[in-house]
Amino acid sequence: MELGGKMEKLVNFRDLGGIYTGDNQQVKTGKLFRSGEPVQLSEEEKKRITETYHIERIFDFRSEGEINQRPNDFSKQLSYIPIDLFRDNQEITSSFSQLMAHADLAEEYMLRIYEELVLLPSAKKGYQEFFEGLVDTQQVSLFHCFAGKDRTGVAAALFFSFLDVSKEDIYRDYLKTNQDRREANELILKETKEQDQVNEEQLKSLETMLYVKPNYLDHMFTTVKEHYGSVLGFAKEGLNLPHSFFEELRYKYLDR
């Protein structure tokens, strides 16, 4: 059974387990979780992370600036691995400040994010480190970025793809972010509007960027196909993952 219930402050938190692969094997529950940033959580939430879900290691896909501004609650308590996917292009990130800065070009900016996540050297190196980390230990892991939707969403989509999960199920998990972030997004829009620093058009553009769309993930997969031929080609050529990686990933994350 899939783990991961609603948290008070930790947004978009869920277990990646419970989904079936193309050959009808189930992704293990309680092994890998995704979320938005675990920042300023209640003591009860922290306890659930470590004692209920037994999470021992955290991959943080945020930039150095994001981390300095809002430090991870578990950076000194658990095995903590910061991976700045956009290090090679500081002009692009899916942090709130950057979303606001590009609100006038919402759709184009979001598509660029998804393209850079599979082409930017720091993104490829970062995802390589992440996936190598998933198979080198038995620790239960959590990975996140700011909202847990773009950098995290691509990581989850690649994880499922490497395990041969259907596109339908990959997109279902990806789009669940819109449901899980609805309250947080509505609060952001309300507070932004109350600040009276944006017009209605900018507010509408911001709303566009706070949610995920199928065409964003479509663009990522299309970019992968154009440059690497397939997702497996991306894993081997883009992420430099050895052939043995796929069997190790299946062994660690699929029920048998």
Largest sheet: 5 strands, mixed
Strand order of the largest sheet: 1-2-5-3-4
Helix content: 40-55%
**Structure summary, number of beta strands:** 5
Low-confidence sequence ranges: none
The dominant shape is globular
How far the N terminus sits from the C terminus, by CA atoms, comes to: 15 Å
Q: CATH topology, what is it called? A: Protein-Tyrosine Phosphatase, Chain A
Tell me, rounded to a whole number, the average pLDDT.
Answer: 92
Query: Considering the protein shown, what is the CATH homologous superfamily?
Result: Protein tyrosine phosphatase superfamily
- Give the radius of gyration: 17 Å
Per CATH, the class reads Alpha Beta
| Number of separate domains | 1
User: From N to C, what is the helix and strand string?
Assistant: EEHEHEHHHEHHHHHHH
From the 3D coordinates, which CATH architecture would you assign? Alpha-Beta Complex
- Alpha-beta classification: alpha/beta
GO molecular function: phosphoprotein phosphatase activity
InterPro entries: Prot-tyrosine_phosphatase-like (IPR029021), Tyr/Ser_Pase_IphP-type (IPR026893), Tyr_Pase_AS (IPR016130)
Protein name: Protein-tyrosine-phosphatase
Pfam families: Y_phosphatase3 (PF13350)
Characterization of this structure:
The protein has twelve helices and five strands. It has helices spanning 43-52, 64-69, 96-101, 106-119, 121-135, 151-162, 167-180, 182-194, 200-210, 214-228, 231-238, 244-253, and strands at 14-15, 32-35, 57-60, 79-82, 141-144. α2 links the parallel β3 (57-60) and β4. The protein has a single domain (14-253), classed as Protein tyrosine phosphatase superfamily (Protein-Tyrosine Phosphatase, Chain A), CATH 3.90.190.10. The two termini are 15 Å apart. Strands 1-2-5-3-4 form a five-stranded mixed sheet, covered by helices on one side. The radius of gyration is 17 Å and the shape is globular. α4 (106-119) packs parallel to α10 (214-228), α6 (151-162) packs antiparallel against α7 (167-180) and α10 packs across α11 (231-238). The model has no long low-confidence stretch (mean pLDDT 92). It is α/β, with parallel strands linked by helices.
